[in-house]
Write a structure and sequence with these properties.
The complex is a heterodimer of chains A (about 325) and B (about 280). Chain A is an all-alpha fold. Chain A is built from 14 helices and no strands. Chain A has 2 domains: about 50 residues, no CATH class; about 250 residues, MetI-like fold. Chain A is globular. With about 280 residues, chain B is an all-alpha fold. In chain B, about 75% of the residues lie in helices and about 0% in strands. Chain B has 15 helices and no strands. Chain B is globular. Chain B starts with a helix and ends with a helix. The chains are: A mainly alpha (about 325), B mainly alpha (about 280). At the A-B interface, helix 1, helix 2, helix 3, helix 5 and helix 6 of A face helix 1, helix 2, helix 5, helix 6 and helix 7 of B.
Chain lengths: ~325, ~280
C-alpha cells in the first residue's frame, strides 16, 4: 500500500531530490517533535514503567516516601489475600469479559447481517439509533440505567411487579445477586452499536454478486449465512472479538459510575482503579483501601495486563482454528 | 437492486423487521423514559412513574442546572474540549503528514510506534506520578495535558487519508514560497476536511464524556467538568429522579446535537479505526 501510493512518476533519484525541493527537513521534524515528545512522556513511558512501579510501595499521596519491595505486591495479591476474594474478583472479571464479548458480538453480528440487507428501509436510521449510547458516554448511560433500575418507580421494577407479577421485586442495583448482571447488560447496551458498525463495515466489502448467485441457486438465508457471510467476515469477527475482550477485561467505567464497585460488581479493572485512586471496589467485596496504594495497584494492573495478553492470544488462536475448520 | 428484494423470502423479511423494531424499543425506550421523567414534577413522577408527563415541568432543567452547579463547570468543559481537540488534531496531523509522504527518515518506524498505542496498557498510575511530581495535579493545565494526545487512530486515519492527496501540491506550494506551517494549515487541513471532522468529533466526544481522568486529576470544584458535575450530582440527589434526568439531558444535549449533524463522519471514523485497528 505504501509503495503504491508513494510511487510517484520518477524513480528513486527523482523522489529524493523532490524531497529536498519541497519543505525543509528541519521544519517538518520540528513540527513533529511536540507530538512525539507528548506521546513518549504521557503515553509510552507510563505504559512501560507501570511494571517498575509494581515492585515499589509508592503511594498516590503527595510527599510520601517510597521504597523497593520486590515481589511483595504480587505475593499480597496471590497469596496473602483472602482466597475467596481472589477467586471472586478473577472469576467475576472472567464472567464479565466472556458474557460481554459473546453476547455483544452475537447480537451485533445478527443485527449487522439484517441491517446489511437492501430490502430493509431506514437502515441508516437504525444504525444511528443503536450506535447512540456510545456517543452519550458512560456517565449519561449510567444515569439512564440507574433511572431504569430504580426502586420503586423504575420501569424494570414496574415490569417485574405489575407485568410479571413478582411480589417483592429486588432493588436491582443494590442487590448482591442482580447488580452485576445489570451492569453487564448496561455494558452490552452501550457498546453493541460499536461492534455492529464494525461488522457492517466488514459486510460491505462482500460483493453482491456472490449473494445473487447463491440466491439464484436456491440457497436459503441460513445456508447463505453459514456458507458465505460468516466465512467472509471472519477477519472482522476476529477484530471485533479482540476489541471486545480487551475492552471488557479492562473496562470499569460503567461499574464505577453505576454501582461504584459495590454489591459484588468489582472486577480487576475496577480494583486497580479504586486501589490506586480511592473509592469503593478496591476489594472483591466492594470495600475501600486507604492510602492510595499505587504500587500495589500497579502490580494488580500487571496481572490484568498478563491476563489480557493470554486471553487475546488464546482467542486469536481459537478464531484461526475455527476458520481453518470451516 | 429491486430484483434482489423480491428474491428474499417474505418470512425472513418479517422476522428482520420484528427484530429491528424490538431493538429500536430496547434502545429508544430508556432514553424516552428518561426524557419523559425529566419533564415531570416530582409529585407527578411518584404518582405516575410509567405514564406520559402531565405536568410538563420544563423548569426541572433550570433547577437541575442550578443544583448541579453546571454554571460553574460548563466553561471548564468547553475550554478542555476545545483546547484538547484542536491540540490533538494539530499534533496528529503534523505527525501523520510527514509519515504519509515519507518526508522524514524511518517513517515506517514512526508509524508503527504510534500504532503501538492501540495495544499498550494505559499506564494510568505512572502517569499520575508524573503529573503529581511536575506539580500539575489538580490543575487545568495538567488535565489538558493528559486529555490531549496523539491518538493512534487519528495517526492511522490521517496517514491513510493524506496519501490520497496529490503530491504535486506540495511541490507547487513550496516553489511558490509557501512555508510548511502555512501550507499545513491553509492547504492540507482544509483538503483533509472529512478526516479532520471525523477525528475531531470523536476526540471532542471523548473529552466531553471523560469521567475517569477528571475523577483522578481534578479535585477542586473550580476545575470540574460538566460530566463530573453530573456524576457528583447523581450521587448526592439519589432520589430526585426528575432532576437527575434533566441533568443528564443537559450534559447529553451537545452530544446529541453533534451526533445529529455529524453522524456520518463519526461512524466513518469508527469504521476506519476498527477495520484495520
Amino acid at each position: 500500500m505504501q509503495a503504491g501510493s508513494a510511487g510517484a512518476k520518477g524513480g528513486k533519484m527523482f523522489r529524493s531530490r523532490a524531497r529536498i525541493r519541497t519543505f525543509s527537513l528541519w521544519a517538518v521534524v520540528l513540527c513533529m517533535l511536540p507530538g512525539i515528545l507528548h506521546y513518549l512522556i504521557f503515553r509510552l513511558v507510563p505504559s512501560i514503567t507501570n511494571a517498575v512501579l509494581s515492585f515499589t510501595d509508592i503511594s498516590g499521596i503527595p510527599g510520601t516516601s517510597w521504597k523497593w519491595i520486590g515481589w511483595a505486591n504480587y505475593k499480597e495479591f496471590f497469596v496473602l489475600q483472602n482466597v475467596r476474594d481472589l477467586k471472586n474478583v478473577l472469576g467475576r472479571t472472567a464472567i464479565y469479559a466472556v458474557t460481554v464479548t459473546l453476547i455483544q458480538n452475537g447480537i451485533a453480528l445478527l443485527m449487522a447481517v439484517i441491517l446489511n440487507r437492501k430490502f430493509l428501509r431506514g437502515r441508516n436510521l437504525y444504525r444511528a439509533v443503536y450506535f447512540m449510547p456510545e456517543i452519550l458516554g458512560v456517565t449519561v448511560v449510567a444515569t439512564v440505567w440507574k433511572l431504569m433500575f430504580s426502586t420503586p418507580t423504575g420501569p424494570v421494577f414496574l415490569l417485574m411487579k405489575d407485568v410479571m407479577g413478582i411480589e417483592n421485586p429486588p432493588a436491582v442495583l443494590s442487590s448482591f445477586d442482580y447488580a452485576f448482571p445489570a451492569v453487564i447488560a448496561s455494558q452490552i447496551w452501550m457498546h453493541m452499536g460499536y461492534s455492529l458498525v464494525i461488522f457492517l463495515a466488514g459486510l460491505q466489502n462482500i460483493s453482491n454478486d456472490i449473494y445473487e448467485a447463491a440466491y439464484i441457486d436456491g440457497a436459503g438465508e441460513w445456508q447463505v449465512f453459514w456458507r458465505i457471510t460468516l466465512p467472509m467476515i471472519w477477519s472482522t469477527a476476529t477484530v471485533n472479538t479482540l476489541l471486545a475482550i480487551i475492552g471488557s477485561l479492562q473496562s470499569f467505567e460503567l461499574i464505577m459510575t453505576i454501582t461504584g464497585g459495590q454489591f459484588n460488581t468489582s472486577t480487576l479493572g475496577m480494583m486497580v482503579f479504586a486501589t490506586a485512586f480511592g473509592g469503593r471496589g478496591a476489594t472483591a467485596s466492594g470495600g475501600s483501601v486507604s492510602g492510595l496504594r499505587q504500587g500495589y495497584a500497579a502490580a494488580q494492573s500487571m496481572v490484568l495486563f498478563v491476563a489480557v495478553f493470554i486471553v487475546t492470544v488464546i482467542s486469536q488462536v481459537l478464531m484461526a482454528r475455527l476458520e481453518s475448520e470451516q | 437492486m429491486k430484483k434482489k428484494g423480491s428474491l428474499t423470502n417474505i418470512p425472513f423479511q418479517v422476522f428482520s423487521y420484528i427484530l429491528v423494531l424490538i431493538f429500536l424499543l430496547i434502545y429508544l425506550f430508556p432514553l424516552f423514559f428518561s426524557f419523559n421523567t425529566s419533564i415531570k414534577t416530582a409529585q407527578d413522577y411518584v404518582t405516575n412513574p410509567a405514564g406520559l408527563t402531565r405536568s410538563w415541568a420544563f423548569s426541572n432543567y433550570i433547577v437541575a442546572w442550578q443544583r448541579a452547579s453546571f454554571d460553574k463547570y460548563i466553561l471548564n468543559s468547553v475550554l478542555y474540549t476545545v483546547v484538547c481537540t484542536v491540540a490533538s488534531l494539530v499534533l496528529s496531523m503534523f505527525i501523520a503528514f510527514p509519515i504519509a509522504r515519507k518526508y522524514v527518515p524511518f517513517s515506517n518506524f514512526w508509524y508503527y510506534l504510534f500504532l503501538c498505542g492501540l495495544f499498550l496498557p494505559s499506564g494510568a498510575i505512572p502517569l499520575f506520578q508524573i503529573i503529581l511530581n511536575i506539580g500539575l495535579y489538580n490543575t487545568k493545565i495538567g488535565y489538558m495535558l493528559i486529555m490531549t494526545g496523539v491518538n493512534a487512530t487519528s495517526v492511522f486515519f490521517f496517514t491513510g487519508y493524506l496519501r490520497s492527496l496529490p503530491r504535486d501540491l506540495d511541490e507547487a506550494a513550496s516553489i511558490d514560497g509557501c512555508g510548511y506551517m502555512r501550507y499545513m494549515f491553509t492547504c492540507v487541513m482544509p483538503l483533509a476536511k472529512p478526516a479532520v471532522v471525523s477525528m475531531g468529533l470523536l476526540t471532542m466526544i471523548g473529552i466531553w464524556n471523560d469521567i475517569v481522568s477528571s475523577t483522578i486529576y481534578l479535585t477542586s470544584e473550580s476545575n470540574y467538568t460538566i460530566t463530573r458535575g453530573l456524576f457528583v450530582f447523581t450521587g448526592q440527589y439519589q432520589n430526585d429522579w426528575t432532576l437527575m434526568a434533566a441533568a443528564l439531558f443537559i450534559v447529553a444535549a451537545p452530544l446529541i446535537i453533534a451526533y445529529l449533524f455529524g453522524q456520518r463522519y463519526i461512524v466513518d471514523g469508527i469504521m476506519a479505526g476498527g477495520v484495520k485497528g
